[in-house]
Design a protein that fits this description.
The structure is a homodimer of 355-residue chains. With 355 residues, chain A is an alpha/beta fold. Chain A folds into two domains: 237 residues, Aspartate Aminotransferase, domain 2 (3-Layer(aba) Sandwich), CATH 3.40.640; 102 residues, Alpha-Beta Complex (Aspartate Aminotransferase, domain 1). Chain A contains nine helices and 14 strands. In chain A, strands 2-10-9-8-5-3-4 form a seven-stranded mixed beta sheet, with helices on both faces. The longest helix of chain A is centred in the last third of the chain and has 22 residues. Chain A is globular, with a radius of gyration of 21 Å. Chains A and B meet through helix 1, helix 3, helix 4 and helix 6 of A and helix 1, helix 3, helix 4 and helix 6 of B.
Amino acid sequence: MKKWNFGAGPSILPPEVMKATADACVDYNGLGLSLMEMSHRTKDFQAVMDEAQDLFKELLGIPEGYSVLFVGGGASLEFCMVPYNLLEKKAAYLNTGVWAKKALKEAKLFGEVVEVASSAADNFTYIPREYTVPADADYFHITTNNTIYGTELREDLDSPVPLVADMSSDIFSRPVDVSKYALIYGGAQKNLSMAGVTFVIVKDEILGKVSRPIPTMLDYRTHASKGSMFNTPPVIPIYCALQTLKWIKAQGGVKEMERRAIERAELLYAEIDRNKMFRGTACKDSRSLMNICFVMADEYKDLEKEFLAFAQEKGMVGIKGHRDVGGFRASCYNAMPLEGVKALVACMQEFEAQH
Amino acid sequence: MKKWNFGAGPSILPPEVMKATADACVDYNGLGLSLMEMSHRTKDFQAVMDEAQDLFKELLGIPEGYSVLFVGGGASLEFCMVPYNLLEKKAAYLNTGVWAKKALKEAKLFGEVVEVASSAADNFTYIPREYTVPADADYFHITTNNTIYGTELREDLDSPVPLVADMSSDIFSRPVDVSKYALIYGGAQKNLSMAGVTFVIVKDEILGKVSRPIPTMLDYRTHASKGSMFNTPPVIPIYCALQTLKWIKAQGGVKEMERRAIERAELLYAEIDRNKMFRGTACKDSRSLMNICFVMADEYKDLEKEFLAFAQEKGMVGIKGHRDVGGFRASCYNAMPLEGVKALVACMQEFEAQH
């Protein structure tokens, strides 16, 4: 039976990407060696790194003056690297959920932190829109997509201070006006690659302005000046990322990714809104295209486990909601075909017909 | 033609390990999903993580009271994590080369650093043996194997203060008395796995003693308390490590790895010492079993490029020496079969016969 992987992350990747990565692990380009046993200083891997950085820039239309870095440690490490590199006195954070809070917590070790707004009182069901960013903040940090709550900030904000965004779970799902950001970062394991590599897009001119000494590996300038090759980079995760970037380009780029994301999400949200047995959890103006969260309607609450088992039997994988929200979460990243969402909708309709 | 991969890292791994990793990238255990698209919170991956930690402990005979961590960022990130977690006032470092110096440099950001000895004046051709570690140092840091210079410290030192070792390039090549160490760390991309995961063996009781606040991801306690699952770990590199650990066990464990390493190294050093065209660069009492460095003897200096090309034609990969030493470096990690070294020796003898 065909399985549809709606897991929140590590998550679905195009089958071609997984196949190409597996092939490179056995014999890379007919060289008689696996890519994993080749020095990162070879011409062969340098070409992988260069192409990945170039394609990354091309697909997002990244302007001159920005560096694209591939580093290790995950987005969680960025939570402290951002303030280490950018926070001299004060930083502003928008609190839209668990990951935003974790980022904010790390910043407090480095200076004053202003939480400009929070939707915590409503269990993060919406993205706050009314707030003021202090004009004297060193930067303003946002989390564009909140996987747990299924909310997403899909526009590029006009910020009075340098804008920093965690785009771990919606990068490459829409065109982004990178010029509006000072720094964008994220873990790769949603729309980009296997777990094990973190991407950072950084405007070079914002670096080097804090007075504290920065450990070498935590200083973005180290990685920018060495093209992400200061130390041995995570070779296979970067190769896997390159395969995804090529796939995105071949499919038509980020505009096409956005078209598909909208098509998938509209189909599923329409069913959630139509089907009396289910209810969406995120406010409509904040609904994520990437993580679609829903619960059983109040009068069907006791059928939650039954629906989960029913959907799993039909091949739906990873749709159990996060414990902070409950119910269900269908993550619809770039690699999810429309057929997957259709299968889930069919599931919901069949379950409705049975009850 | 069979290629023999003598590269210094990322480097040779057992073919079975590469094959098993590639297979998991396509379909994991017949589940119809790639391991790279599965949540790290699944029972399936938890089993991988648990088994990797257990086997790691079993193979090295790690006593109670130690945690084994798998994190991202590489050994270079550990250079600052070690002092962040352990350096309150003063640390002692043994300077045996580029990597030791890099580790020492990071420690200076956190407190006083005493370089107890250095072989820099002799281009790091030996491991210093005569020095005193200050009794009031918070820890003493060593680099057990120096890939660039081909030197190795193969005994477990008695240190008057907690001993910290970078074993990036010789872990699992010999039995180690872990009880003599407070912390052992290393990048995986020599004897353990593909690049992208760092291992840390840490004695739990040495943590939590410094007064500075530590960013969450840089605090070893974060990873120890969450079994390396505080954030998404590098799933595929950890799976690859597990395959290597299983392979080491199946081959007879670290005692057998050491027997093979000695056999390989004795064969190659004997040829270097016998063959008048070549000369070993490391002092005999400090010779590494992992990275065997040699140059052309003075009277044959102008044949260096010719020998390199000759060896490459015969299938030798990655034997060009590091620019700091020149000449040749044959890295003989665990996965290098004796046949590879025999092929290199044959190469050297054939070259000698031709001149």
